[in-house]
Amino acid sequence: MKKSSTQALVVRPIVTTDGVFLAHYTEKGLAELNFPGKGSEVGRGFSRAANKKVFPAKIPAWHRLTEAALKKALTGHAPKKLPPLDWSGTTTFQQSVWREMLKIACGETRSYGQLATNIRKPAAVRAVGGACGANPIPVLVPCHRVLAAHGKIGGFGGGLDWKRRLLAREGMVL
DNA sequence: GTCACCTTAGAAG
DNA sequence: CTTCTAAGGTGAC
């Protein structure tokens, strides 16, 4: 299955001490969450939602969960509950990587290599990096807890300072 | 088809 | 220590 059917997005803002995040929802759940300050990201992909009449009653409830989870995560606290996540437009490889990342506890880290090993594809180290970069739901899916080997910070698509800041809040020192 | 990417262990200089 | 290489998965061009 490729990307396709799942669109019909609804976007809701989440105001935090770090700025305004934008949460994108489909009828299946939270599909994307993006960092503040990137106005450019706002225009891509959900404009068609304005034409849709669909606005599942569940969305306000999901949004409440997302907001609570995001704020907790931003203070270095593990969210106790997450809204349903809609990963329908992604590959199974990516999903397995993200599922594995969700297991990383607050204050812990993994290397790309460790993650690759955990999903039974030890040679797909770089692919794991690619999956992290493709992660549509940063912070809640802790892609920032994935470091390169030997404690190196590695990279971060949305801005390396975010990665450092998030890690620092969880009490980590590089 | 080609290239660039949030990588890494190992071999060579 | 530094540099180079090979190997996965995916999306942009």
Q: What distinguishing features does this structure have?
A:
174 residues, Arc Repressor Mutant, subunit A, 2 domains, two-stranded parallel ribbon, 14% strand, globular
What report would you give on this structure?
By secondary structure, the chain is of the alpha+beta class. It folds into 2 domains: 10-74; 92-169, Winged helix-like DNA-binding domain superfamily/Winged helix DNA-binding domain (Arc Repressor Mutant, subunit A). It has 6 helices and 5 strands; from the N terminus they run E-E-E-H-H-H-E-H-H-E-H. It has helices spanning 39-42, 58-74, 92-102, 112-118, 125-134, 160-169; strands spanning 10-16, 19-26, 29-34, 110-111, 146-147. A 3-stranded antiparallel beta sheet has the order 1-2-3, with helices on one face. Strand 1 (10-16) and strand 2 (19-26) form a beta hairpin. The longest helix is centred in the middle third of the chain and has 17 residues, at 58-74. Residues 1-5 and 40-49 have low confidence and may be disordered. The structure holds a DNA duplex (13 and 13 nucleotides).
